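Researcher: Let's do a round of design. I'm pasting the structure tokens now; please hold your answer until I've finished.
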């Protein structure tokens, strides 16, 4: 019986991926009905309802004009001239810091999809530190007595006095621990260090954890093991229940943790009403992606949906994905990026990696949210992103963009300037170091 249920789940996943990614528009429209959509909804989550142009009433069309008016007002009230364009120079640095970044083995690559955007986010931190003129060493750690520097394996000696990494750690001002679940205090690396150094003493050094995923309650118990060692923890969300839970364990430092794009590939073409999504099929995403595709077809809008099976993702080796650079170049041609933030029935994860993937490429994020709340204090709804709570919200945004793409072109130009002057690695990591 268990094997049968597992088989049925795999069949369901394969069918779902086919229907969203591969089926023809004609086939898709045959399946997409109110009853069919209801089959894919999950109790407790915000649920899209079946909505076509006929059921999108005259009153709803007024919402399009209201949205366009809101956008126009916000563009006028928050001009581009208010953006902070100050930059650091070598002369402005009082002293250069020695910084170590400890990461799990294999996490530095930007092409490995098993780790999501971790590799690109690590590179963002590394680039920001170099741009601020600090000395940086990256050590990859596994759960044995092995360390990898620049991808070369080094066996640790039993006697730490002959272990050269002791000097690196001892002479460092800040040590970042990237992933508090994959790296654990009882690893041999940390055990050996603790024989010579009191990692809990906090004598001048700053040990800072980096958390890039929304922690479930059981994960918080793992984090508690780090509470005596760490001086604080960097977290990508500014306001959420996850932040409040973390504050009970650490001093939480917020910065947007943005996946680094290796080269400048933001498209310069005028805004085109089109939508891109790529991500795993989990939580209530399937129902929303069915809705997104249907509305794009109904409105004659170009779209690209890459839905990846959550069950089958481990069978997709990194070699089966196109290179990240190629993927990003194709994605940058779209006008909107569709982002789904919820992680459980009651909670949104907010500023996840896929949001910044879209934002820094110049795509305007359409963010499907569970709760009506702002993503952060420095992102303006209907200017930096468009919140979506139900099917009508989504159709209103798409219709507004079709009606007046020139307004959305202004929004995209503003986003690109913010990325250039405010959300760049140099400025964000400079702010991080000041917070530490």
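Researcher: That's everything. Go ahead.
Model: Designed sequence:
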């Amino acid at each position: 019986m268990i094997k049968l249920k597992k088989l049925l789940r795999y069949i369901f996943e394969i069918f779902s991926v086919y229907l969203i990614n591969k089926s023809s528009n004609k086939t898709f429209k045959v399946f997409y009905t109110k009853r069919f959509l209801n089959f894919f909804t999950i109790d407790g989550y915000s649920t899209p309802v079946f909505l076509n142009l006929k059921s999108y009433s005259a009153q709803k069309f007024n919402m399009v004009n209201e949205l366009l008016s809101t956008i126009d007002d916000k563009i006028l009230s928050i001009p581009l001239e208010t953006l902070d364009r100050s930059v650091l120079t070598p002369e402005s640095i009082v002293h250069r810091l020695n910084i170590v970044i400890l990461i799990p083995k294999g996490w530095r690559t930007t092409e490995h999809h098993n780790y999501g955007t971790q590799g690109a986010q690590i590179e963002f931190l590394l680039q920001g530190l170099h741009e601020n003129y600090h000395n940086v060493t990256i050590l990859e750690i596994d759960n044995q007595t092995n360390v990898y520097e620049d991808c070369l394996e080094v066996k640790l000696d039993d006697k730490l006095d002959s272990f050269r990494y002791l000097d690196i750690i001892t002479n460092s001002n800040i040590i970042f621990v990237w992933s508090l679940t994959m790296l654990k205090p009882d690893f041999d690396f940390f055990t050996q260090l603790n024989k010579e150094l009191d990692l809990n003493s906090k004598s001048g050094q700053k040990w800072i954890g980096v958390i890039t995923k929304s922690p479930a309650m059981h994960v918080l118990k793992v984090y508690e093991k780090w509470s005596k060692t760490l001086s604080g923890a960097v977290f990508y969300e500014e306001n959420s229940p996850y932040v409040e839970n973390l504050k009970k364990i650490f001093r939480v430092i917020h910065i947007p943790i943005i996946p680094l794009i290796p080269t400048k590939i933001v498209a310069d073409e005028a805004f085109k009403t089109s939508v891109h999504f790529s991500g795993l099929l989990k939580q209530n995403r399937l129902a929303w992606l069915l809705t997104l595709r249907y509305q794009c077809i109904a409105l004659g809008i170009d779209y690209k949906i890459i839905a990846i099976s959550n069950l089958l993702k481990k069978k997709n080796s990194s070699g089966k994905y196109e290179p990240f650079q190629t993927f990003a170049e194709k994605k940058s041609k779209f006008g909107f990026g569709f982002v789904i933030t919820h992680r459980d029935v009651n909670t949104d994860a907010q500023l996840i990696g896929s949001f910044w993937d879209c934002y820094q490429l110049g795509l305007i994020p359409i963010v499907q949210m569970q709760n009506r709340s702002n993503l952060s204090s420095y992102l303006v709804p209907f200017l930096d992103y468009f919140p979506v709570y139900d099917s009508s919200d989504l159709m209103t945004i798409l219709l507004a963009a079709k009606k007046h793409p020139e307004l959305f072109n202004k929004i995209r130009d503003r986003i690109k300037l913010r990325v250039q002057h405010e959300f760049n690695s140099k400025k964000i990591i400079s702010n991080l170091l000041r917070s530490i």
